[in-house]
Design goal:
Length: 206
Amino acid sequence: MLSQVPRSRMYVAAAVAAVVLVSVAAVLIVRNPSGPADAGSDSTAAAAPSSTATPSEKESESSESEESEPGKPSGDNRAVGLKAEATSAPGVTARLARIDSVQATASLPGEIGGPALAITVKVKNQTGKKLDLALGVVNAYYGPERTPAVSVASDGEVPFPASVGDGESAKGVYVFQIPEEARPVRVELDLGNGADVVVFKGRPQR
């Protein structure tokens, strides 16, 4: 009987230890029910969002930076000399037939009298059909800053006719207030109807 007492105590101690281990495991499971997999998802969710601009944002920034200054004419890539002939559309050519220095007299609101240039623009039609000139516009600029020249329409201006027949030429005279010391001069002709804008640039003889 005395030899069996220690063995029974050993059984009791083992049973108590097993109960303790089960209790500890249960507590750990309750505190972290999702296990290691959730730890990875938490770290992914906490990652900082990317600051890289999207393609649409880049295109918007590019278009804003490339936008030209309003009120200024286009570049000089297609400009020709003041005495040259230019093509605005297939079969349509234009040139500055005359550039005369005049003393303009202003008579309409917004006009400015003084030194001016009377520019005669000649358009030749070889398209095989009548050419509409009703939408034709002539603009002038002067100086390195391309300052828009004020039109003095009331003093000697003769606009293009409404149209010009095939194989014929038409002229228009346009007067612009331009200071005598202004150099260079830039003249733009836009006949409309999808034709290219013709650009003449140079230093006219006063």
